[in-house]
Write a structure and sequence with these properties.
Blueprint (H helix, E strand, L loop, with lengths): L12 E6 L4 H11 L7 E4 L15 H11 L1 E7 L14 H18 L2 E4 L11 H4 L5 H5 L2 E7 L10 E9 L8 E4 L9
Parallel strand pairs: 1-2, 1-3, 3-4
Antiparallel strand pairs: 5-6, 6-7
Length: 190
């Protein structure tokens, strides 16, 4: 989105909050490899070593200010569970709804897209509803759910083959699955 290469989407500012990956060591190099326009990517970084950065639902007002300040049209929160305030039980639907629903209100009010990344649990179930780690509230609140997994039809030793499936869509027709490959890249001075 930051480079404007997605069909039907002009280049736009993106606000990215990751609770697991270093901006300098991981996020920025991956974005460079993907040919992102880093001038349009704004990172929400913890203010100190004992600060976890964006906390939901506590920091909704601050997030709104950051969105307005950067002009971001897309916000990515990765993963959602590391951004939940202490005391929010990620396995309780009502608590997840209270913590995450303000994001939907914010997205609607500002006319933006918020992408929430959630990990899968260890269940063997093929049902995406069952596989999302934590509460079913994550799935239920989402308007659209995409699942990126290893391609089950790829050779067992092919670690680059992925399958992107559209597991849920409340705002339009469900789209067909896409097969893709993760391609490595060497980044200089990263």
């Amino acid at each position: 989105a930051s480079a404007g290469r997605l069909e039907g989407i002009d280049a736009c500012d993106v606000l990215l909050s990751s609770g697991e990956e270093s901006v300098d060591a991981t996020q920025a190099p991956r974005l460079v490899a993907a040919e992102a326009n880093l001038d349009k990517v704004h990172f929400i970084a913890p203010a100190s070593d004992d600060d976890w950065g964006l906390t939901l639902p506590d920091d909704i007002a601050e997030l709104a200010k950051m969105i307005q300040h950067t002009g971001a049209r897309i916000v990515i929160i990765d993963p959602i569970t590391t951004h939940l305030a202490s005391g929010v039980d990620s396995h309780k639907d009502a608590e997840i709804r209270r913590a995450v629903a303000p994001l939907a209100t914010l997205a609607h009010a500002l006319g933006i897209t918020i992408v929430i990344v959630a990990h899968l649990n260890k269940s063997e179930s093929a049902d995406l509803y069952v596989r999302l780690a934590g509460s079913s509230g994550f799935y239920n609140l989402a308007r659209s759910v995409l699942l990126l997994t290893k391609d089950p039809e790829a050779d067992e030793d092919d670690n680059a083959a992925r399958l992107l499936t559209h597991g849920k869509c409340n705002v339009g027709p469900q789209q067909p699955a896409l097969r893709l490959r993760v391609v490595g890249a060497t980044i200089q001075n990263a």
